[in-house]
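Late entry, evening session. Most of the bench is empty. Finally got around to the prediction I had been postponing all week. Sequence below, unchanged from the version circulated by S.P.
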Amino acid sequence: MVIILSNVYEDDSVRIVTEPIETENPILIEGFPGIGLVGNIASQQIIDKMNMTYKGSIESKYFPPIVVLYQGLVTMPVRVYESKEYNLLLVVSDIPINPSVSYDISKALVGWSKSINVKEVVSIAGITTMEESEGTHVFGAATNREMLDKIRDHIEVFNMGTISGISGNVMSECLMRDLPAVSLLGSTQTQNPDPRASAAVLEVLNSLYGLSINTEELFEQAEKIEAEMQRLAEDVKSSEQQPGYRKEFPMYG
C-alpha cells in the first residue's frame, strides 16, 4: 500500500519524510555505499560544494537502529538534499543497505520520484576492474537509447555485465516505471574507499549537467579520505555477507 500525505511518502516498510520540494521536474542523484564507496564520497562532495539544502530523510524498520552525529548534531543516516539553483535533488546514505531490503528501498525511492515529477535519475556507484590502466575510467549505462546517447561521449559504454546492489535495483525499478535513468560507474581496483574514482564520476556530472563541482581536493586528500572511510568500507562488506548486521557507522565529512 502506498500513502502520500502532505510531505510524507509511505510504501510498505519505507517512509520518506521531507519538507516541500521546491524544484520542478528535478534531476535526482543517488549515492549509496557500495564498491569503493564511490557513490557515498561523490554525493557528499556534491552536497558540500553546492551548498545543498537538507530537505528530509528516508526511514525504514530494516535500517540499523542508529542516528548519525555531525559536529555534535543528530541527523538521519539516509538523507535528501535539494539545490533550487541547479534543479537537483540528491539522496545520500551513510549506512550500507542490506541486499535483502534494497528492492523495497529502490521501489519506494522511484515511487516517490514519480510522485514529485523527477525528470531523470542518476545512479552513482563503483565497479571493480581487474586490468590496471592509467587513470580512472567511468562506465555508463542507461534505461533507454535517448539517455545512452546523452552520456555516450562522456563515458565508456558498459556493453555487457551486471550492476549489483541497490544501484542495480534503482536502475531496474526506473526501467519498469518508465523513469529515464543513467548509471555512472567509477572504476576501481580495490574494495577500499576510492576518492579518485568518485572524482572521475563528478567530472562526468560536471560535463553532463553544466556543474562546477570541485574535484581537486578529492585527489589531494585521497589518502586521508581513504583512511577515514576504511572502517565504513569494511562495514559495507560485512553487511553484504551477514543479514541482520548491526553496528555503528562512521560518516564522511
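Two things to note before I forget:
The two ends are 37 Å apart (CA to CA).
The longest strand covers residues 120-128.
Will write this up properly tomorrow.
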